[in-house]
Amino acid sequence: MQTISRRVFAALGLAATVSLLATPAVAQTLEDLKKKGEVNVGLLVDFPPYGTTNAQNQPDGYDADVARLLAKDWGVKVNLVPVTGPNRIPFLLTNKVDLLVASLAITPERAKQVQFSKPYSAATIVLLGEKKANIKGPADIKPLKVGVARASTQDVALTAIAPQGTEIRRFDDDASAMQALISGQVDAIGCSTTVAAQINKRQPGAFEPKFVLRQQEMAVAMRPGNEPLLKSVNDFVARNTANGELNKLYHKWLGADLPKMQ
Q: Is the dihedral of CA 153, 108, 227, 236 positive or negative?
């Protein structure tokens, strides 16, 4: 009897702990954020030029400027909260941030967890390898070691096309995958064209895109069920796409026009 009681209390204690850790997602509206006077926006700082840090070690890049423009448009203060690829959705769902402007590509899997706005940006994901390497398609990567940022869009895209038996090495972020390629730990990596451009600056002529893994559109992410907030974000995206403000920011950071998106 005493043993059973201990088990029951242990089970109740575990349930209580799980309940405390499982923070329920909070629905918000633009009016809620205006009353609060600020918006907490999660963004990457290891994905230049979309997300990076400036000379003062503060978040910067295209996504940071989009978040600042959003806050200005809404008349609230913006708090830029650094996140990583793996923890950005958990940060949103546990109310650590109100929104994600974190280069989050729209995928069916992610759409089950978060609510996406209209796309505000786009990027091309490629397989990047040594210029001399004979890689023309997915079949050629089977004998290779291929790196990718864990839980990223490029991870999903690469995993989908890699032949069975391909050695895929997953790193914490793009910076780690990039370093692995440069140092020879892997033969190729899945990355965005912007990351490929950064590598080319460090090692001119050494690497080149071998083939396209995916064209991805990125959107602002909110917690599910926030229809009023979704409308406010979509209005922001539509208005600042039409008036050219997003294009100006894209040109500032990527040196090209904002791609046409759906």
A: positive
Per-residue pLDDT of the chain (262 residues; tens, 9 = 90+): 444 444 443 444 444 333 334 445 565 789 999 999 999 999 999 888 899 999 999 999 999 999 999 999 999 999 999 999 999 999 999 999 999 999 999 989 999 999 999 999 988 899 999 999 999 999 999 999 999 999 888 999 999 999 999 999 999 999 999 999 999 999 999 998 888 988 998 999 999 999 989 888 999 999 999 899 999 999 999 999 999 999 999 999 987 788 888 6
CB 117 within 8 A of CB 230: yes
pTM score > 0.70 for this model?
no
Q: How many CA atoms lie within 13 A of 145 on its CB side?
A: 11
Under a CB-based contact definition with an 8 Å cutoff, are residues 164 and 140 in contact? Answer: no
Contact 148, 172 (CB under 8 A): no
Q: Which domains does the chain have, with CATH numbers?
A: 25-121+218-254 (3.40.190.10), 124-215 (3.40.190.10)
Q: Do strands 188-192 and 145-149 pair parallel, antiparallel, or not at all (unpaired)? A: parallel
